[in-house]
Amino acid sequence: MAEKSSSIETPVNGQEVEDDESNAITMVDVLKEETELEEDANAVLGASDPLNCTYPQGYVKRQALYACITCIPADSDKERGGVCLACSYSCHENHDLVELYTKRNFRCDCGNSKFGGNKCNLEPVKEENDKNKYNQNFKGVYCTCKRPYPDPEDTNDDEMIQCIMCEDWYHGRHLGVNNAIPKDYGEMVCEQCMSKHPFLWNYAGLCLTKGTASEQEVDVDLKQTAVSDDSAPSTPTILINGSAGIELNTPGSSQKSNVETPIHDGKECILSNFKPVEQCKGATFWPEGWRKQLCLCPKCLDNYEASAVSYLTDLQDTVQFYEEQGKAKAANGQASSQYDHAMHALSQMDRTAQIEAIHGYNDMKDQLKEYLQKFAESRKVVREEDIREFFSQMARKRPRIEVPSFCR
């Protein structure tokens, strides 16, 4: 980008135009943002099927989901429901959809009894999914503040972070960590889930409570302890180094590995070797690969199963794994672009709706050209706020559309 200066001495009607270059949008900015949005879309949607309902696959390990507020209003007493990516296109076009990002072990609800007898266009016959789990996100609210996102009343520029256990989303300022969020972390567990699953505190030595992963060592050191021939075999001991890592002293081993290297063989429980750790308030942040350190002895595996958290031991459960699948499909040309999604949505409309959509696009294009022409004539810089204002005006002018018959 061009270097920023304080003002531009360009006379217009005898006056100087103040330089808004710091807030200006160049075509490079637009293309860069479009590329970033495309990459984000590929990460979230790339591993999900945009054409086929996922119901026949059963409870999918992880997929992009949506809640339809048109079909099941947020203030309704009806049970919540979630729909897959393909159904969001084919069955809920022009509906008020809440993007849920991804959820684990979920089977598509579209068209089942929760939707008032309105059948799914892709898979008309569906039973209710008693293993699905629903949180407040399905009503369009998030965090402990129970607010929508984006929140029209919230002026704070705050990051939303998803807990890997309850899968709710939280504002960074509501995580109880005084904004001490590490720059490089893999996953977050909210305070409520840490309280619900206290066994996680046994691994608190892996937490990135402050700083970054590069600033605090999260390595697992396997140090060899000299043992004489006549000495009794010693028990491996695991020592917590502050709040940043785990140190394992075990006879007969001498190697250093990072946090992703398991420190157990799954036969003996390692928890008894951990030093007690005082439980703290607030969310916890964990480095990538920390799940590999979880004890895999039979007793701990049974405890995970009883607590319904066995997914923690499945490395393919992570959002990172899911996103990498989407990116890989995009790199191989298998993922659909936003253009492809738009063309698919257009193809699902009847002839009248297609014509209206095309007319609407052409009208928007003409109005945007006319809007930008004013800036060209006055030689003003187009700012990001100007573009947002244009689309806000377009939204206010948009005619109200009746609720589709599918939702009645």
Automatic annotation (TrEMBL):
Keywords: Isopeptide bond, Metal-binding, Phosphoprotein, Transferase, Ubl conjugation, Ubl conjugation pathway, Zinc, Zinc-finger
SUPFAM superfamilies: FYVE/PHD zinc finger
Zinc finger (UBR-type): 51-125
Coiled coil location: none
Highest taxon above the source species: Eukaryota
Sequence ranges of Polar residues compositional bias: 1-13
Pathway entry: Protein modification; protein ubiquitination
Protein name according to UniProt: Putative E3 ubiquitin-protein ligase UBR7
Annotated organism of origin: Frankliniella fusca
Biological classification of the source: Eukaryota, Metazoa, Ecdysozoa, Arthropoda, Hexapoda
